[in-house]
Structures are given as C-alpha cells and as structure tokens.
Design brief:
Structural class: mainly alpha
Strand content: under 5%
Number of strands: 0
Helix content: over 70%
Largest sheet: none
Radius of gyration: 22 Å
Shape: elongated
C-alpha cells in the first residue's frame, strides 16, 4: 500500500494536473507518516545473553535463529537509511513549503470521514511549488526504492520464520 501512495504522488511530479488538492495531500501524507519496525526478540536475547543458545542441538535451528537476527539487523540498517532520506528529502522541503497544521487537519478529516480534523482548504500555490522541488520528488522515488527493499527483507524473514517453526515442530515430534 505504501508504494501505491508514493507512486500516486509521483504522477503529480510527472505532470498530472492537480484536480483535487485533498487527494494529493492524502497520498503524500500517507508516505510522510511511517512507523518504525520494532522487533520483539526477548527470547532470542535471553538465549544469547544467558548462553543457552548452546542447548539447541539442532544446528539448522540454531543457525536459522542467528540468520534471522542478521536479517533483522539488515532491515534496521535499511530503515535507518530510509529515515535519513525521509528527513532530508521529504520532511525538510515539506516543512519549508507547507503549513503542517493545515496538512494534518485536512488529512485527519479525510481519514476519519469527517469525524475529526477539519475540511480545511489547502494552498494550491504551496503544493504547486512543492511539486517543482526536485529534492522532494527524489524523496518519493527513494521511498519507493527503500520500502521495496525493506519489504523484501520482511518477506525473507517471514520465510525463515516459517522454516524455523517447521524445524522446531519436527524436533518436538522427534
């Protein structure tokens, strides 16, 4: 979904006429607001810190756990790069050219179906100027690129988790 929002905004950068500022604001803001991934790996940390990982006799399971943590670190490094690009390429131009209060009120109104926020009119001039900002456009391009890479890491982690669960279940049946 994230990439769909970013691709929609890039259409405006590539010359799509702005017929609905609310639509542009909705799609851009859905890219601006992203959430960091938080891994809940308390059991893994306990196994490592206590030395109990050595109790696991199946090397495939042990290596799978270590590889899963390595994939998590790879994901976090990509996320850090994504965050830097968001701050430099997206937030800086947006903060300089848009009224955040208007953006947030309008976005909140849209996502709440009018229950919250305010149906505030956005400045066409500000958005037109923002769409001329190459740095900001590059931010959307990089958001798509980096988000695609992070999704690939998530998918790889998911596949490894499924494999580990299968191995653990087989070990328990044995």
């Amino acid at each position: 979904i994230f990439n769909r929002f970013a691709f929609k905004v890039l259409e405006y950068f590539e010359g799509k006429p702005i017929e609905d500022l609310n639509d542009l604001n909705y799609h851009a803001t859905n890219v601006y607001i992203w959430y960091r991934f938080t891994l809940h790996d308390n059991t893994y940390k306990e196994l490592i810190n206590s030395g109990n990982i050595g109790i696991i006799s199946n090397d495939s399971i042990k290596n799978g756990l270590l590889n899963l943590q390595a994939l998590y670190n790879k994901l976090k490094n990509e996320e850090d790069h994504f965050r830097y690009d968001m701050e430099e390429l997206m937030y800086t131009p947006a903060y300089e050219m848009l009224k955040m209060n208007d953006l947030i009120k309008n976005f909140t109104y849209q996502v709440s179906n009018g229950q919250d926020g305010e149906n505030i009119s956005l400045s066409r001039t500000n958005y037109e100027n923002l769409l001329k900002n190459l740095k900001h456009e590059n931010g959307f391009v990089m958001a798509i690129y980096e988000h695609t890479k992070m999704n690939a890491h998530f998918n790889e982690m998911n596949e490894l988790c499924s494999s580990l669960i299968k191995l653990i279940n087989e070990e328990l049946e044995f």
